[in-house]
Amino acid sequence: QVQLVESGGGLVQPGGSLRLSCVASGNIFNIKDVGWYRQAPGTQRELVATIISGGTTTYADSVKGRFTFSRDNAKNTLYLQMNSLKPDDTAVYYCNAFAWAAGYYRHYWGQGTQVTVSS
Predict the structure, then answer these.
(1) Mean pLDDT for the stretch of residues 55-82
(2) Which of 32, 25, 24, 21 is nearest to 56 (CA)?
(3) How many angstroms separate the CA atoms of 113 and 115, rounded?
(4) Distance in angstroms (rounded) separating the CA atoms of residues 119 and 115
(5) In the chain, which ranges are E strands?
(6) What single DSSP character describes residue 75?
């Protein structure tokens, strides 16, 4: 089992910045890939950024150049630095871990943190 706890969401004006954090615990050594997803009201959950096991980071086109996904292995923490925020970035943001457990890989999710971009 892997537990994920996000924090750092809130209300920010357009053009502003936020940094989301996600602390992982449990069987973290079985984690293969990690990612940030988001879901706006009435839409499907979408990938924002991911770091795969080889260390490659990829971003959705809509956030490239504005968001940075990083990790601090010593603190078991993932970060999503979000700059130049737009109203379209408003969503619940979820941390994700793809990990081996009980014989197969599965997705683990945090509880989500709300990000609202509005003036």
Answers:
(1) 95
(2) 32
(3) 7
(4) 13
(5) 2-7, 10-12, 18-26, 31-39, 46-51, 57-59, 67-72, 77-82, 91-101, 104-109, 113-117
(6) G
pLDDT at 53 over 90: no
The tokens for 84 are 């130049």
Rounded distance between C-alpha atoms, residue 20 and residue 32, angstroms: 21
State how far the alpha carbon of 44 is from the alpha carbons of 3, 34, 57, 91, 101, in Å: 23, 19, 22, 11, 26
CA distance 63 to 4: 23
Per-residue pLDDT at 101: 87
Residue 102 has pLDDT above 90, yes or no: no
> What's the burial of 100, exposed, middle or buried (CB within 10 Å: 0-12/13-18/19+)?
middle
Contact predicate 90/116, CB 8 Å: yes
